[in-house]
Amino acid sequence: MAVSNNITACINFLVLLCTIPIAATGVWLASRHGGEDCARLARWPVFILGALLLLVALAGFLGAYWNRRGLLACYLFAMAALITLLLALLVFAFAVAHGSGAYPVLGRAYEDYRLEGYSPWLRRYVAGDDPARWEGIRACVAGSDTCSKLAMDSSFIVPEQFYMSHLSPIQQSGCCKPPTVCGFAYVSPTVWASPANPAADADCAAWSNDPGQLCYGCASCKAGVLGDLREQWRKANVALLVATVALIFVYVIGCSAFRNAQTEDMFRRYKWGNNY
């Protein structure tokens, strides 16, 4: 029985290791700051889920090492429930990150952004029925140094240098300049001259050369924020998916080892009873 317990303890230790990337992903999502991170979506739930997985895996490891079958049984049940929640979170994250509002612009290395390309849920999250949420995000982006850094970039001497740049973060394309379709003439990264007949687009009228206004009221700014949010979740999904697959694989092996240990224990009790 001691050998089986040691094997199960080793397996649960592997489970413990598999939960670390999940908790680390939650910490990474929750600790990011700046204009690119003004929209916070399900950051703390990922961290909390990772922390719970760590605690449950630690309980399973101690239960196997100290031969506490009751603790192990609770561990298996709790781990199954948490893996189910993790799978649900992954499905949600992939659904949210599906679709992009980026579209190429002729003669530009950067892309412009529109809301229509993103998932309906993500659009509602930023541009839906809660204006206060967007106002908070807008104030965060405007108060960050996202656009001011772009304005102070001295590498753009002629317009073509700006047109051929790959703007990063994404808000620099959505919030710090007018949409290309408006036909504004480049003066500097955050100063643009309006044409005589601008395109009939609401964003064109919303643009202002005022550093405190720019395109923060534009739909393209909302789309840029969603683009950053989507990119964050695409990166997080890779770590979560790899950790989840490894966690499920090791968990299945752990269940098998636990079941074998119970069978071995029953056999020894039966054998001991027959000897007497």
UniProtKB/TrEMBL annotation:
Sorted UniProt keywords: Membrane, Transmembrane, Transmembrane helix
Name under which the protein is recorded: Tetraspanin-2
Membrane topology label: Multi-pass membrane protein
Entry superkingdom: Eukaryota
Residues spanning the membrane: 7-30, 42-65, 72-97, 238-258
Family designation: Belongs to the tetraspanin (TM4SF) family.
Organism: Dichanthelium oligosanthes
Subcellular location, record wording: Membrane
Xref: InterPro entries: TET_plant (IPR044991), Tetraspanin/Peripherin (IPR018499)
